[in-house]
Amino acid sequence: MTLTLNIFVALLIALGLSVGLFLVGGRHEAQAARALASAEAALSTVPDPAARHFLAARAAGWESSLTPAVRMLRAGPGSVESAVVRATGLRMALGQRLLAPGASLLALGVLAGFLRRDRARDLVLYSSVTYSYIGKFAALGAIAFGLFVALSPFAPPIWTLYPCLGVAALGAAIYVGNLPPKL
Predict the structure, then answer these.
(1) Residue 115: what pLDDT?
(2) Structure confidence by residue, pLDDT tens digits, 2-23
(3) Which of 41, 102, 118, 124 lies 20 to 30 Å (CA to CA) from residue 57?
(4) Are 162 and 150 in contact (CB under 8 A)?
(5) Between residues 30 and 164, which one has the greater pLDDT?
(6) Residues 39 and 153 sit within 8 Å (Cβ to Cβ)
């Protein structure tokens, strides 16, 4: 439980620092423009025009939800702040699109872990608490990094969510597969 809390506290700190340093650090028109261009380029990679339009509408909804928070931090949202809010809305909408495949992949990882655990229960394999801890750390770390990528406008590109899904599924398989059989 403490590992889970530590990872999510680290996620909140990283997210707060990335946005806080941007807001406090002065005018960063170039960084805001790059963040918005990156998010719009990720949106343009969606092949279906109807899905692209739906994601743009969902991003507009996220923007309207995030705008009051920016107004609290600054006297009035300028062009830089609106670009950051738009980029964040687009990243959140694109990240939301990967929730269903991510949950399916995570469930497959847990199922693979259960299959390995059956072999450990029959004393064919050895269950390692160390590997279980490493799997838990990998799964939770990948989920936390994926949340950071989806929520922060200055995070790595959106395509890094795909490896995060794979690492989370692999970590879940290792975690569940190496739990002691008497649990």
Answers:
(1) 83
(2) 666 766 676 666 666 666 656 6
(3) 102
(4) no
(5) 164
(6) yes
Q: In this structure, how many other beta carbons lie within 10 angstroms of the beta carbon of residue 99?
A: 10
Of 74, 88, 81, 177, the closest CA to residue 129 belongs to 177
Distance CA 90, CA 69 (A): 17
Side-chain-side CA neighbours of residue 33 (13 Å): 4
* Rounded Cα gap, residues 157 and 118, in angstroms: 39
Question: Using one digit for the tens of pLDDT, what is the confidence trace for 60-107?
Answer: 777 766 666 665 555 555 666 677 777 777 888 888 888 888 899 999
Distances (CA, A) of 4 to 14, 82, 137: 15, 33, 8
Count Cα atoms within 13 angstroms, Cβ side, for 39: 29
Cβ distance 84 to 28 under 8 Å? Answer: no
Quick check: 155 and 91 in contact, CB under 8 A?
A: yes
Whose tokens are 């620092």? That residue is 17
